[in-house]
Design goal:
Length: about 375
């Protein structure tokens, strides 16, 4: 893992967030380097904003912070904190960091997009931009070659404008899009669907995990959420649209439910879904943070968790481990962690090592529901 990005006689020290003692992944990729190299000689107007979308840990924001009026747009709390930390570490001026649901600054001169894998998020962002961009704005997307599909280019053509691609460099490619305001369409409503067996209706903003249907892991976990008056404080960790937290609230009306996710769109969806599905929506609070970093230690009786196995575009198991460690810290003595996981992920070994105990409470061909007690 290289700790520093060096280009054009300039070096930035960049770290992923949160910083780990042993880090095998770097905080930027070849697509970032390609964008930096391509835009190096551009003359930028310091009065007009540039927009940077989906900047994983702030590599692009750091590079442009001294050159232009930067607004970074992200749905990730972790990416936001990584950007802030890297700006500080390199003694760079701050940039404006907003979430994907916020209003974008007007009259940008340059838009750099790290193209997301999620086509719903890409569509949302392209439609946002189409309503906003002047004709002279330069729009450049970037990603690994293997992540730029024909469908990606068709979405860019359909929702923003004429699209062309570059040659590949270091297995990365650029996508050039010419804004066409005549393509502007009304912004899409959140995707809404029902879970009839639990009488739940869910609204999902564009970047919510499994935003078009209930994922099969959550479907199994929904049938094994405990009900007991001993639960006063319950946490839905990695809440997504909040379906697990909503079910926990219904089964335990005496409990305060805290739903936690690092996605701003997930937290917004969760809040909307609590209003739609709970008689007392104030029973549930959704917050955006990194795992349980902002939750008081020894403050919860039950943590429910459906861990992700990727960070941005990288597959990793360290997020699940961080979730389990954080859960142990926030649980009261005798508090319970209930986890759903693909049986191939081997969560039982991790939970046994951390808690000293683990029990299988349900399983099917693909998933296992585990319980550990503090």
């Amino acid at each position: 893992m290289k700790p520093a990005l060096t280009l054009h006689d300039r070096t930035l020290k960049l770290n992923r967030f949160p910083i780990r003692k042993i880090e095998t992944l770097q905080a930027w990729d070849a697509a970032d380097e390609y964008l930096i190299n391509h835009t190096h000689d551009m003359e930028l107007d310091p009065q007009r904003p540039i927009l940077i979308l989906n900047d994983s840990f702030g590599a692009l924001s750091c590079w442009f912070a001294e050159r232009a009026n930067v607004t970074s747009v992200t749905d990730s709390f972790v990416a936001k904190q990584g950007c802030i930390a890297n700006l500080t570490a390199n003694q760079l001026p701050s940039v404006n960091i907003i979430d994907c649901l916020a209003e974008l600054p007007k009259n940008p001169q340059l838009v750099l997009i790290k193209l997301p894998k999620n086509n719903r998020l890409l569509t949302w962002q392209l439609q946002q931009l189409c309503h906003l961009l002047p004709e002279d704005c330069i729009v450049i997307g970037a990603a690994k070659v293997k992540e730029i599909h024909t469908s990606t280019l068709k979405l860019c053509e359909k929702f923003l404008g004429e699209t062309k691609t570059s040659l590949a460099v270091k297995k990365a490619r650029l996508v050039f899009i010419k804004p066409n305001a005549s393509l502007a369409k009304p912004m899409p409503e959140p995707k809404t669907w029902d879970v009839p067996e639990h009488d739940i209706r869910l609204s999902n903003h564009a970047n919510v995990f499994s935003g078009e249907s209930l994922d099969i892991g959550a479907r199994l976990l929904l049938n094994h959420i405990p009900q007991d008056y001993k639960y006063k404080d319950i946490i839905d960790l990695g809440c997504g649209n909040g379906v697990i937290g909503i079910k926990a609230a219904r089964r335990n009306p005496q409990a305060k439910i805290t739903c936690v996710d690092e996605s701003f769109m997930a937290a917004a969806s969760c809040t909307e879904n609590a209003k739609q599905n709970l008689e007392a929506p104030e029973q549930l609070t959704a917050i955006v943070t990194d795992c349980l970093a902002d939750i008081e230690h020894s403050s919860a009786d039950l943590v429910l968790c459906n861990p992700p196995f990727h960070q941005q575009t990288t597959i990793t198991d360290h997020i699940a481990w961080q979730m389990f460690c954080d859960a142990k810290q926030v649980l009261r003595p005798k508090g319970e962690l209930i986890v759903i996981g693909n049986r191939q992920l081997g969560y039982d070994d991790k939970l046994k090592r951390l808690f000293g105990n683990v029990e299988i409470i349900a399983q099917n061909d693909k998933f296992i529901v585990y319980q550990s007690v503090k």
